[in-house]
Specification:
By secondary structure, the protein is of the alpha/beta class. The protein has four domains: 100 residues, no CATH class; 94 residues, OB fold (Dihydrolipoamide Acetyltransferase, E2P), CATH 2.40.50.140; 189 residues, Rossmann fold, CATH 3.40.50.300; 158 residues, Rossmann fold, CATH 3.40.50. The protein has 27 helices and 21 strands. The strands form four sheets. A seven-stranded parallel beta sheet has the order 11-12-10-13-14-9-15, sandwiched between helices. Strands 16-21-20-17-19-18 form a six-stranded parallel beta sheet, sandwiched between helices. Strands 2-3-4-6-5 form a five-stranded mixed β-barrel. Helix 19 links the parallel strand 18 and strand 19. The longest helix is centred in the first third of the chain and has 27 residues. The structure holds adenosine-5'-diphosphate and magnesium ion (MG). The site of adenosine-5'-diphosphate has 18 residues, from helix 12. Keywords: ATP-binding, DNA damage, DNA recombination, DNA repair, DNA-binding, Helicase, Hydrolase, Isomerase, Nucleotide-binding. It catalyses: Couples ATP hydrolysis with the unwinding of duplex DNA by translocating in the 3'-5' direction; ATP + H2O = ADP + phosphate + H(+). It comes from Uruburuella testudinis. InterPro entries: ATP-dep_DNA_helicase_RecG, DEAD/DEAH_box_helicase_dom, Helicase_ATP-bd, Helicase_C-like, NA-bd_OB-fold, P-loop_NTPase, RecG/Mfd, RecG_dom3_C. Pfam families: DEAD, Helicase_C, RecG_dom3_C, RecG_wedge.
Amino acid sequence: MTPEYQKLLKITDVTAKKLAKLHLNTPWEVALHLPLRYEDETHITPIADAPVGVPCQVEGVVLHQEVQFKPRKQLIVQIQDGSGSVLFLRFIHFYASHQKQMAVGKRIRAVGEIKHGFFGDEMIHPKIRDAENSGLAESLTPVYPTVNGLNQPTLRRVVQTALESIPLHDTLPDELLGRLKLPHLAESLRLLHAPPPEYTIRQLSDGTLPAWQRLKFDELLAQQLSMRLARQKRIGGHAKSLHGTGALADKLLNALPFALTRAQGRVLAEIRADMAQTFPMHRLLQGDVGSGKTIVAALSALTAIEAGYQVAVMAPTEILAEQHYLKFQQWLEPLGLNVAWLSGSLRKKAKDAAKAALSDGLTPIAVGTHALFQDDVQFQNLGLVIVDEQHRFGVAQRLALKNKGEDVHQLMMSATPIPRTLAMSFFADLDVSVIDELPPNRTPVKTRLVNSLRRAEVEGFVLNTCRKGQQVYWVCPLIEESETLQLQTATETLAQLQTALPELEIGLVHGRMKAAEKAEVMAEFSAGRLNVLVATTVIEVGVDVPNASLMVIEHAERMGLAQLHQLRGRVGRGAAASACVLLFAEPLSELAKARLKVIYEHTDGFEIARQDLNIRGPGEFLGARQSGVPMLRFANLEEDLHLLEAARDIAPRLIDERPDIVEAHLGRWLASREQYLGA
Ligand code: ADP
Ligand code: MG
């Protein structure tokens, strides 16, 4: 925080540092730091009537106080009120000052939740106030999100100072507010930070209060404005117009053992039209697992290469990047094109050679992980960046890509459909092409939920499948806490299957293996020399072996829906009837039950993504977890759809007619968050 702001808010350096941890660096950000919840200290509940498990305030005279040492050191205080009832107050952390404050005979107030304790009804660590010298609160008490060492009274004081010291006049026109039935900003902020006595906790908590609606609308509007401005900036920017001759692409098409589907042809035309423009393409190629996005990417890359430019193809994991590398090599080398490979695990010498070939322009295309976008990688004339599974990259990586690729065309690919609300908000500056048709001769995948106690039956099923000449994936349970444990489990699974099914060739691929070792095992499996591939979830995305017709997933209850859908999509790519066996272990949490039900009932990726959003919210989809910065603090895309729609409708008009309003609004809302909203 700047010294001027500190002075304005009357705070010390220490407090300013704490506020910075909450991402509060300007008085506006402080004013927009809204309470998490409220406490009611406006009235006193007789102990006899006090509900159990609900926060309340009681008042009484201290009857008894003692420090006990068993089972651990604690302070026990007994109070009694006018109703004659007694209540125990228990403190595990306390100081001498607490003992003094609650000396026998003192009248005190306690705020907390009553529980049925060992001695009788008790409150653990209630908030204590001296009842003789302090009056009742006049309004509900806000409780803010905070960090260690920054207490609620300080936060309240800083917030109130912020509200008094900044101009709170409305930036939005009255006509608009009237139409949307939204109150003024000043009024809304004052109400939420210090609600008048007539409001109840319930009214303030469910987000439907007009004051909350106003803040949610402002937040959504800021997002819409910044997305639209980003789009305008892009369209006003420059990129090389890439017109391919078609020479290379036609050669590849002729060499393929299949013809493009109608949907693939259509999206390819959309991508080519974008690349011919003089401003950067920003297009998402969306298609369910197995819909054939890779060939579309390769043909798009050829268009750029025909036009004399370089292409970078980036994937989120090493194994997926490598699959792409092998595919691109297989397709492009016969056309006389060199494909470079860049990943984190590459030896320095090989990496230097690849980098030199790219900076000299000798190599027209590079495939790799985010190592492709490290500062020391220079392209001679990069024209197109293709990013697979874009949403799996962290925000920092997306920003790096964005900075490197200001003036290049970008093609993103994803099998996870963007729900409508996200397409309207976070992804508003993305043009979308959808492959809505699977290649012919795909067989639907039968999904079975099987209790892991019946593992032997599943092993029998594996044997039958392999005897028919087909192949099997066996996915090991996900162990998030420890990679070592994960590896151990994978090795045990391999040993167990080898013992149970001695006539089969079984291979193992896991995250700790060197890239070359992984590639070798994958190649063995692709060539059909392994019947079964035991894998940790590294095979999650992109792997493509059409002869594999059975997928077994252990501890499926631990996995997310998108992951399960991706995994299941690895089978059903050939002519044989395919199945996916989801092994689960009891007991199942409600969340796990809900997920397994969805994956069992649905095969359509779009529907699964929609249900997923319902179950867990959009955070993970956006990569918000990695960034640590909440993208939307107040609004909820599903619940506040009407506000999102209103913001989307009004944003273009404000940009055209009222640039002053746009600037003021974004200044208040986006000071330090702007870069994240567009990433
Ligand atoms: P995804 O969209 O999940 O990335 P892939 O690009 O890996 O899917 O394609 C899945 C499989 O379908 C690959 O084996 C690919 O060669 C094959 N494929 C792609 N397009 C067609 C098509 N038009 N006809 C037949 N097979 C196709
Ligand atoms: Mg793919």
